[in-house]
Amino acid sequence: MVSHENDVSAREHSRRVRAMFGKIAGRYDLLNHLLSGYTDTRWRKHVVRKLGQELSKDGARALDVACGTGDLALRLATSTTAFVIGTDFCRPMLEIAARKSESSEAGTIPFVEADALNLPFIDSSFDAVTIAFGLRNLSNFESGLKELFRVLKPGGRAAILEFSTPVVPGFRSLFKFYFSTVLPRVGGFISGSRAAYEYLPDSVSRFPDQKRLAAMMKAAGFGEVEYQNLTGGVAAIHVGTRISQDALGHA
Ligand SMILES: C[S@@+](CC[C@H](N)C(=O)[O-])C[C@H]1O[C@@H](n2cnc3c(N)ncnc32)[C@H](O)[C@@H]1O
After folding, report:
1. Looking at residue 249, what is its pLDDT?
2. Per-residue pLDDT, 214
3. What is the best residue among 7, 13, 17, 121 to mutate for testing ligand 1's pocket, by most ligand atoms within 8 Å of CB?
4. Which of 175, 177, 188, 239 is the most exposed place for a label (fewest CB within 10 A)?
5. Distances (CA, A) of 153 to 96, 97, 204
6. Ligand 1: does its nearest atom lie under 6 Å from the Cβ of 162?
7. Residues 23, 81: contact at Cβ < 8 Å?
């Protein structure tokens, strides 16, 4: 009974999130850049750097989960030689991603409509997996982490870019004010959906902080878990490796 109720609420959560991103898709990029002063672009570059080793392997394959309008997938494809696939469950976001990739030097990236909690790839498919500002939106963070782990090859690495908890107290209060007061007004005005930009600080406040997310990654099976704070902890990149059994000496 409880499990059925959980299923229903997870489906309802997904339906709402998908509808919300569908509504703001056309203004998503503009607002991202505007509200972050282009910091979001810098943060995505850090993700690519963190996975440099995996992405530069011969024939490397990378998956960007919850890719939205494709900025990280495009960055991965233009800055590395890896074959990149993007997935998201919101078609309007994917359509924008596909248009951007057609007119980019990256060449056409396959953008696949898929739920991050049930990815259409067999186990151990990718050398690198990324998710930027996506994990927070899932109905179940633990299941999302396990799914990222499942599709990684042994030895492969995942990078999670997400809003986090600012580490300097004064800055934390200032940022909280901006995030929960200014951002919903500006975002709501420009996107036409105040609810979407109220959901943003709300979902961030429910998301685990840096240490807790690192612990959740370890519980999902990742090894060599570490994180780097960005812009004083406004965001953080967590990386983790699917340690191969050989490396553990269990061959
Ligand atoms: C804040 S946007 C981030 C988009 C992009 N990664 C970026 O860096 O701008 C969150 C994205 O997660 C997607 N998303 C949320 N839940 C998802 C799920 N369960 N499966 C697939 N995509 C999901 C949304 O459709 C949306 O495009």
Report:
1. 61
2. 98
3. 17
4. 177
5. 29, 26, 30
6. no
7. no
